[in-house]
Amino acid sequence: MESPFEYNKRVQGSQFIGRSTEVAQVCNLLRNHRNILIYGPAKVGKQSLVYNAIERLRHDLKDIAICETNLFNIRCVEAFLLRFCNELVSHFAQTPAEWAHILQRHLPHAPYMVDTTAREPEYTYTTKNPLNEKQMEELLMLPESLACEYGTHVIIYIKQFQDLQLFDDPHHLFLLMEKVWKRQKNTNYIITGDRLNAMEEIFLKKKYFYHFAEQIELGAIEEKAFTDYIIKGFQRAGKVILPEHASAIYNLVGGDPWYTQHLADLCFNLSKGYVNDKVIKQAISHLINLHDYEFHSIAYSLSKYQIRMIKAALDGVVKFTSADILDKYKLNTSANVSRLKDALSKKEILWFNDKQPARFIDPLFKLWFTDYFFAE
Known about the structure:
This protein is an alpha/beta fold and 376 residues long. A five-stranded parallel beta sheet has the order 2-5-6-1-7, with helices on both faces. 51% of the residues lie in helices and 12% in strands. It has helices spanning 20-31, 46-60, 77-89, 96-106, 133-140, 142-150, 170-181, 196-205, 223-236, 243-252, 257-270, 277-300, 304-314, 323-328, 334-346, 363-373; strands spanning 36-39, 64-70, 112-115, 122-125, 153-159, 187-193, 214-215, 350-353, 356-360.
């Protein structure tokens, strides 16, 4: 029988659990024309949350246009704004004439032309020159211009926002985006990112877009909601899993939604009628093996000091610069600890807070280090 557990795509319907409060938050903020910020590790459920909220909004509101832009493979502002404009205009124009109308009316300074050779019309460059300030501002203002002309509420959903930091001059771009976006009354933004430390660098440390958006935090789905879901999934298929085994699946991967679904799926496929400790042990071994090459590659790139820092984090250390900790883990000096924190943050391995133990961003990676890398 096909597994009832879904982990390789965004979830909806009965498979979307434990996020009703967050869905209501997103919907209420967008109804009130507020901007939203959501970031956290990959696969924590950001996309599922946004899509389920948008589906609810589509039923309630008819005058909305939702544009989605993914920045994961963009490395310059010209490519970013071209993709942004093409995806946005496709919601308002179908024919080449309609694309030309928007270009002439709203983007008179853009170095674009309408390309009709593709399956659908789109804008392409007419020059190799970089965009100037006036052109960039005009392009960033396009959602508001279209919202006003067509009498609609435009919602821009941006994925992998942290990748803008990879551009040549992200500081200038962020300041310009702030200036333009704050003037927009009929356009709202859902900003998401998968790299926790990189997003905190933008929004908390450097304070770009200060007070621009309401942050929605995605913690772990409550254990009982997830274990009940696992138990019911097995029951529907005529299989049995005890509450303690459903809890074990949840806790082994720190309640991470993606890993929990995947581990439950492995247990489902490995069990004949019921789940026991042996099945769970086999399943977690299979899950770690699937990620073993990736984890090995990351560990291979770490210095001996970074590995020692990770061991200290696993041991629950909070104050890494105390003399006894520096000596016990051979971390060298306080200055070196600062460099190690920076390096491990940029690699998105650990999240640091001076008042709490360091946190592993990927719970399965933490388990791999504990049970495999540092195994005696």
